Amino acid sequence: MNIGIFGGTFDPPHLGHLILAERCREEAGLDEVWFLPSYAPPHKQGQPITRFELRCDMVTLAVTGQPAFRVEPIEKELPPPSYTARTLAELHERHPQHTFALIVGGDSVQELPTWFEPATVLKLAGLVAVPRPGAKLLAAAELAAKVGVPPEAVRLTAVECPQVDIASRDIRKRVGEGRSVRFLVPRAVEEYIRERKLYRL
Predict the structure, then answer these.
(1) What DSSP state is assigned to residue 149?
(2) In 10 A of CB 193, how many CB atoms?
(3) C-alpha angle with apex 15: 75 to 49, nearest 5 degrees?
(4) Total-model pTM
(5) How far apart are the first and last CA of the chain?
(6) Where does residue 13 rank: exposed (0-12), middle (13-18), buried (19+ CB within 10 A)?
(7) Contacts for 53 with CB less than 8 Å, ≥ 6 apart
(8) What is the mean pLDDT of residues 181-187?
(9) Which residues pair with 130 in a beta bridge?
(10) Distances (CA, A) of 10 to 84, 97, 100, 180, 189
(11) How confident is the model at residue 45, as a pLDDT?
(12) Average pLDDT over the chain, rounded to an integer
């Protein structure tokens, strides 16, 4: 199967994540989308982050009802920090029958040459990129040149997606202020946040 890999902190997962994943699944011909909560994101070292198990619980609640979505908690089993290249290598080791495509924003495509072992990332997965407003999406040949790989090594599919202006940090802030997050996160996630008293100031 062709599997879309959607990584993130998901702190918390929100409706924008789900809309993006579903659009990419459909438009890029993905059989499934696996949500990978990041265990120790290198770009957030030293920042407070909700415990991994709680974030996995919330993503599980968020994707329930879409059989093509699932949660893959593999990064907890890998040494920190959580580098995409290492995660993809482990996924290939465990699931050699599948091909993988990394779901990323257009801004992440720009930043990919600065990632840990970017050539390995491109070798192990295609890219399903969602352009961001005001940000030029790098063409496959441009990305290949920046990473130092042949143009044919970059498998890039651009997917237009509705721009849903929801951010996890804003949801955390609203919860901390005692404000509503209804219709920003799935109802089950909203209830989980309330029951576990997450994001309280």
Answers:
(1) S
(2) 21
(3) 40
(4) 0.94
(5) 43
(6) buried
(7) none
(8) 97
(9) 105
(10) 16, 27, 20, 19, 11
(11) 67
(12) 94
Q: How would you label 89-124 residue by residue, b for 16+ Cβ within 10 Å and e otherwise? A: bebeeeeeeebbbbbbbbebbbebbebebbebbbeb
The sign of the dihedral angle between the CA atoms of 167, 168, 173, 174 is positive
Tokens at residue 106, please? 């257009």
How far apart CA 181 and CA 190 sit, in angstroms, is: 7
Chain position carrying tokens 């990919």: 112
Paired tokens of 154:
């970059």
| Span 124-183, pLDDT tens digits | 999 999 988 777 788 999 999 999 999 999 999 999 988 888 999 999 999 999 999 999
Distance CA 40, CA 37 (A): 9
**DSSP percent split of the chain into helix, strand, coil, nearest 5:** 45, 15, 40
Number of Cα atoms under 13 Å in the Cβ half of residue 192: 19
- The residues pairing with 128 across neighbouring beta strands, listed in sequence order, are 103, 157
DSSP track, 133-144: TT-PPPPHHHHH
Question: How far apart (Å, rounded) are the C-alpha atoms in residues 99 and 84?
Answer: 15
Distance CA 132, CA 162 (A): 10
Residue 71 contacts residue 35 (beta carbons within 8 Å)? yes
CB 120 within 8 A of CB 88: yes
What does the alpha-carbon distance between residue 84 and residue 152 come to, in Å, rounded to a whole number?
Answer: 21
